[in-house]
């Protein structure tokens, strides 16, 4: 039943002769629904930052910033990381434990590499003399990359717990769920990063 | 029986209080009588709804109070009734909104003959600036502000030299002359409001805001700050004195211009003129944060 | 029976509902302290919220003492006063009402009312409470750091919030912002639970339109909160950067106390937009659960189905959606582009239409009902009166040009206290009197309850009604003392003194409520199952109070939650889990 039909149903009319049906809004497993809701919240958060960023750009004191080259490398690393988790997910569907391990390892290591790269980028900026926080472009750069990094760090906690599950040899079904959640989250962070990076480059 | 009676008393008490309350708005002293009219209109529309709803509840609680063995009426929905209520409410809302927007249009459309003057706020006092003979205010910037130039007028701007500065909190305005008030703050948010003029507007550092009105009554009117601006907010007072045109002109002629006040400051002392600036550029300024 | 649906209603074949595996507490600590049972978490949330709410109440007394009798209380300095108003506002709006409605009522009622064993993520739910507790503790700590708590007003507008002319601009504001960030993180954890539980964990037969309005209110409010709180988080993070790292997101070039600061180019209005993009939905985050709960209270105790259930649901959803496009009505005189006024005045007044419809439907539920004057019903009636009063003054403030003379006066204070202070709190009390028998198995004492009700209702109304008129007079809000003016009569001070006396009386009378709570825990009349003869599922548990896991066998739902006074049935109510062929009709057959 479509949502429109559901919301216009007259509930005082009882249905006779039929057993009441199971009620789930989505066929996804609940943790996946929960993650999607969280991603919606995170999307609002990042979108608001972007709106504020663009709004702030219109003020006369805006001085553009030249992004350090290492960000290109980091982007590549994050793509690899996301691909690694996807690989793990595909193999979880197939039931291939070795594939899961490879994917998780690649994804996790690449994520650490990405974070290290981001710190390096901050370092480069400082060396270039870009620590003048009064320049809003600089402030935003640290703020946005930092926030994205924090989200990735949170994801690494989930990665760590998933890896522990692999080690503890929990059932494949449970593993599939955890790996799937990680993969969706990493894809999300990749998209967020691509948007952020694009915006930083353009301005 | 207690409940219906109390509900009735609350409803009627509210109406009685409204009509006997000695606390009501102060007599208007500007052209914004339309705002008062819109408020009165809103009072009538919403008052009828309030009294209607409260009386209806009071009646329901009396008429349909609990009786053992009785059953409530079963009618889950009444589309016709709900449509009527929606339409009536929409009409009521429109009756308040339309005049409101019409008056707002007046409020934001400054007449062409409006004279400009500027209010500059800082924690916690009001100062004022009138354009001089040239009719133009000089440009300003926060970076020019120091003890000798508290308004931050650009010293290189010719238009600013003859600006008339008033820094004792009391400003005079001529009666029946539309004025556009330019509002500027050098530190935090403030709000320049005069109750009898029915108008106010926030002043935001970094930008100039404005509103306009025409004073219509001679007298003295308190200026209050209506936006929390720190610990001295409640004590930030000023005065607007509405004069006849001739009295106003006489008062204005006595006030110093920017050029005069600069010259005076220089003759007072020639070494301490830039005290604030030298302090601001010292490493200690970080502490001021 | 007459109310049988047409046969063409589509029906999905029944499926077995998996029983959720619950975490079983192994010790006293995991059962009562670090509990994963939503009902225990609900009580933890409620107790903490009410405790911090009492702090907010005491702060309001101190403010009223100063306003009623200026110069009499030397120990209240202006900077204290501004700290009191700031923390009072913050506590009441966020740490009390938001936490109590969503964390308290939401946690207790959602699983029970949708027919679930618990929230879907019990562990996250538990963490949510402890993060919230951390936020509350930080807020309290901020009073004791050098400089004290922030005195920037609950709106925390920059630049003054982080400049030295405002009390608590050092440690206080930082702790406030961090506490808010913690609250938001904790709330997001809880909010995910409330939303996903309503979406995914409803029992068989519990279609969306069979949900009690309480659930609709809490669900929609949670969605609003999840989408609105990020705006506050963005503002808080950026202001923290401005304060600690010297960025200029919100800070323009300015000269503070004669010192030119190193800021430049930032926009204070940007913060106001962010704040109110959160702040206006926040009003409805508090109001919508109150709308939902009061609908159920009125229906149960008037023994009549809610009138126009579908309109009520649509109105809740519609109000929720509209609440995101009205925020700048808090900023009519902020110096923003005045042309925005046309748009925001229009959207604001449009929102009055669904809100008014809700009021009509509450009164039409009473109409032709069989009204029992139980304590929950009394509070519900009082809610309607105060809410209508506070709602119509919102029409003054929402209509842009009317707002100009009234904004930032006591009229605004009176308006929002009536509409989102008094009215929702009356619902909170009504809800407590209504569900206390379920939570503890005992009824609250009627006599103490009556006393509490009349003093609270009449008292609160007497406090806030006259304050509107001080606003008309032009008395500004957030004034430590009025001082000398040439337009405010002496009698205004008498009124202030009177209001203070009433406020203290009403405040002290709340002691009776707390005595009642504790006294009735042990000595209240035993409630038994379903003392109010309600239809919704929370009253259909095998045990009262419900145990961990809520139900023995998950109930199956056959009807909506409002089958009161059904023609033909023997009883005047049919619970949701009674199948059509089990309804006794006096004829022995349906």
What does this structure look like?
- The complex is a heterotrimer of chains A (203), B (289) and C (590).
- By secondary structure, chain A is mostly helical.
- Chain A has helices at 3-8, 30-57, 70-94, 97-127, 136-168, 172-202.
- In chain A, α2 runs antiparallel to α5 (136-168), α3 (70-94) runs antiparallel to α4 (97-127) and α4 (97-127) runs antiparallel to α5.
- Chain A starts with a helix and ends with a helix.
- Chain B is of the alpha+beta class and 289 residues long.
- Chain B folds into two domains: 2-66 and 79-108, no CATH class; 115-269, Sandwich (Immunoglobulin-like).
- The radius of gyration of chain B is 28 Å and the shape is elongated.
- Among the domains of chain C are: 32-246, Up-down Bundle (Cytochrome C Oxidase, Chain A); 527-590, no CATH class.
- The radius of gyration of chain C is 25 Å and the shape is globular.
- Residues 1-18 of chain C have low confidence and may be disordered.
- The chains are: A mainly alpha (203), B alpha+beta (289), C mainly alpha (590).
- At the B-C interface, α1, α2, α3, β7 and β9 of B face α3, β1, β2, α8 and α9 of C.
Supply the key terms.
heterotrimer; A: 203 residues; mainly alpha; Four Helix Bundle (Hemerythrin (Met), subunit A); 6 helices; flat; B: 289 residues; alpha+beta; Immunoglobulin-like; 2 domains; 5-stranded mixed β-sheet; 8 helices; 20% strand
| Helix-residue proportion of chain B | 25-40%
Residue windows where pLDDT falls under 50 for at least 5 positions of chain A: none
The backbone outline of chain A, from C-alpha atoms, is flat
State mean pLDDT of chain B (0 to 100 scale): 89
Strand content of chain B: 15-25%
Share of residues in strands of chain A: under 5%
- Biggest pleated-sheet summary of chain A: none
What's the CATH C level of chain A? Mainly Alpha
| Order of the strands making up the biggest sheet of chain B | 3-2-1-5-8
Count helical runs of chain A.
Answer: 6
* Strand element count of chain B: 10
Number of domains of chain A: 1
Largest sheet of chain B: 5 strands, mixed
By helix and strand content of chain A, what is the structural category?
mainly alpha
Largest interface: chains, residues each: B-C, 111 and 117 residues
């Amino acid at each position: 039943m479509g949502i429109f039909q559901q919301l216009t149903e007259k509930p005082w009319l009882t249905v006779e002769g039929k057993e009441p049906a199971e009620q789930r809004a989505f066929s996804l497993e609940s943790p996946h629904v929960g993650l999607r809701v969280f991603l919606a919240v995170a999307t609002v958060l990042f979108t608001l930052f972007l709106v504020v960023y663009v709004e702030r750009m219109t003020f006369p004191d805006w001085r553009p910033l030249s992004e350090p080259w290492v960000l290109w490398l980091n982007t590549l690393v994050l793509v690899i990381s996301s691909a690694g988790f996807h690989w793990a997910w595909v193999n979880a569907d197939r039931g291939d434990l070795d594939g899961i391990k490879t994917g998780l390892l690649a994804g996790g290591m690449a994520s650490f590499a990405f974070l290290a790269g981001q710190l390096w980028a901050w370092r480069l900026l400082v060396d270039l003399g870009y620590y003048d926080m009064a320049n809003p472009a600089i402030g935003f750069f640290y703020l946005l990359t930092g926030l994205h990094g924090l989200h990735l760090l949170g994801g690494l906690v989930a990665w760590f717990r998933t890896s522990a599950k692999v080690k503890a040899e929990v059932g494949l079904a449970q593993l599939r769920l955890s790996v799937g959640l990680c993969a969706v989250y990493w894809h999300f962070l990749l998209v967020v990063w691509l948007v952020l990076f694009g915006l930083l480059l353009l301005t | 029986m207690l409940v219906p009676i109390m509900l009735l008393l609350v409803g009627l008490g509210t109406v009685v209080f409204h009509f006997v309350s000695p606390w009501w708005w102060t007599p208007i002293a500007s052209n914004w009588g339309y705002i008062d009219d819109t408020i009165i209109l809103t009072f009538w529309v919403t008052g009828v709804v309030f009294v209607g709803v409260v009386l209806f509840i009071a009646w329901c609680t009396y008429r349909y109070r609990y009786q053992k063995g009785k059953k409530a009426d079963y009618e889950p929905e009444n589309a016709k009734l709900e449509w009527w209520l929606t339409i009536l409410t929409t009409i009521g809302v429109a009756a308040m909104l339309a005049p409101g927007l019409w008056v707002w249009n007046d409020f934001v459309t400054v007449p062409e003959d409006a004279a400009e003057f500027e209010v500059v706020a800082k924690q916690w006092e009001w100062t004022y600036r009138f354009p001089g003979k040239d009719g133009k205010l000089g440009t300003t910037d926060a970076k020019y502000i120091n003890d000798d130039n508290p308004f931050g007028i650009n010293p290189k701007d010719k238009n600013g030299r003859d600006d008339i500065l008033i820094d004792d909190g009391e400003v005079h305005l001529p009666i029946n002359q539309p004025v556009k008030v330019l509002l500027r703050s050098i530190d935090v948010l403030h709000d320049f409001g005069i109750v009898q003029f029915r108008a106010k507007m926030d002043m935001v550092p970094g930008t100039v805001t404005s509103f306009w009105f025409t004073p219509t009554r001679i007298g003295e009117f308190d200026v209050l700050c209506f936006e929390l601006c720190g610990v001295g907010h409640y004590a930030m007072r000023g005065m607007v004195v509405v004069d006849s045109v001739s009295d106003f002109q006489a008062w204005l002629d006595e006030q110093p211009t920017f050029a005069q006040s600069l010259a005076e400051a220089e003759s007072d002392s020639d070494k301490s003129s830039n005290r604030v600036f030298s302090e601001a550029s010292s490493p200690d300024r970080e502490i001021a944060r | 029976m007459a109310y049988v649906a047409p046969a063409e209603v589509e029906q999905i074949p029944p499926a077995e509902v998996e029983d959720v595996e619950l975490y079983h507490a192994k010790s006293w600590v995991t059962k009562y302290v670090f509990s994963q049972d939503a009902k225990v978490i609900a009580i933890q949330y409620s107790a903490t919220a009410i405790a911090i709410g009492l702090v907010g109440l005491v702060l309001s007394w101190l403010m009223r003492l100063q306003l009623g009798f200026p110069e009499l209380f030397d120990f209240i300095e202006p900077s204290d006063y501004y700290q009191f108003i700031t923390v009072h506002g913050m506590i009441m709006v966020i740490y009390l009402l938001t936490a109590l409605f969503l964390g308290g009522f939401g946690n207790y009622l959602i699983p029970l009312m949708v027919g679930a064993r618990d929230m879907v993520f019990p562990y996250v739910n538990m963490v949510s409470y402890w993060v919230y507790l951390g936020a509350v503790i930080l807020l309290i700590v901020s009073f004791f750091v050098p400089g004290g708590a922030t005195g920037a007003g609950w709106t925390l507008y920059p630049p003054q919030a982080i400049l030295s002319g405002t009390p608590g601009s050092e440690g206080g504001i930082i702790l406030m912002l961090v506490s808010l960030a913690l609250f938001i993180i904790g709330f997001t954890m809880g909010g995910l639970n409330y939303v996903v539980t309503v979406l995914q964990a409803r029992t068989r037969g519990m279609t969306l339109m069979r949900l009690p309005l309480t659930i609709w209110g809490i669900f929609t409010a949670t969605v609003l909160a999840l989408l609105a709180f990020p705006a506050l988080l963005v503002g808080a993070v950026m202001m923290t950067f401005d304060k600690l790292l010297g960025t200029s997101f919100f800070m323009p070039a300015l000269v503070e106390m004669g010192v030119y600061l190193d800021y430049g180019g930032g926009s204070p209005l940007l913060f106001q937009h962010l704040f109110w993009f959160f702040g206006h939905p926040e009003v409805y985050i508090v109001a919508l659960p109150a709308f939902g709960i009061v609908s159920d209270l009125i229906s149960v105790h008037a023994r009549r189905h809610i009138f126009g259930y579908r309109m009520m649901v649509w109105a809740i959803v519609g109000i929720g959606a509209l609440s995101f496009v009205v925020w700048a009505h808090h900023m009519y005189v902020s110096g923003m582009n005045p042309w925005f006024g046309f748009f925001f005045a229009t959207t604001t007044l449009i929102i009055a239409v669904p809100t008014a419809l809700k009021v009509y439907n509450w009164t039409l539920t009473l109409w032709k009902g069989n009204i029992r004057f139980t304590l929950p019903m009394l509070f519900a009636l009082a809610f309607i009166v105060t809410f209508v009063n506070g709602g119509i003054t919102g029409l003054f403030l929402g209509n842009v040009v009317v707002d100009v003379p009234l904004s930032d006066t006591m009229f605004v204070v009176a308006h929002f206290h009536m509409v989102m202070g008094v009215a929702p709190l009356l619902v909170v009390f009504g809800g407590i009197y209504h569900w206390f028998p379920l939570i503890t198995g005992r009824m609250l004492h009627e006599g103490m309850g009556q006393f509490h009700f009349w003093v609270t209702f009449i008292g609160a109304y007497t406090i806030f009604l006259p304050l509107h008129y001080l606003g008309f007079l032009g008395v500004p809000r957030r004034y430590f003392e009025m001082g000398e003016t040439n337009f405010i009569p002496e009698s205004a001070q008498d009124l202030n003194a009177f209001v203070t006396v009433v406020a203290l009386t009403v405040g002290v009378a709340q002691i009776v409520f707390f005595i009642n709570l504790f006294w009735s825990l042990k000595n209240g009349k035993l409630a038994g199952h379903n003392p109010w003869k309600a239809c919704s599922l929370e009253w259909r548990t095998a045990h009262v109070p419900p145990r961990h896991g809520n139900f023995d066998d998950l109930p199956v739902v056959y009807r909506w939650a409002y089958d009161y006074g059904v023609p033909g049935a023997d009883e005047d109510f049919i619970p949701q889990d009674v199948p059509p062929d089990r309804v006794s009709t006096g004829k022995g057959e349906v």
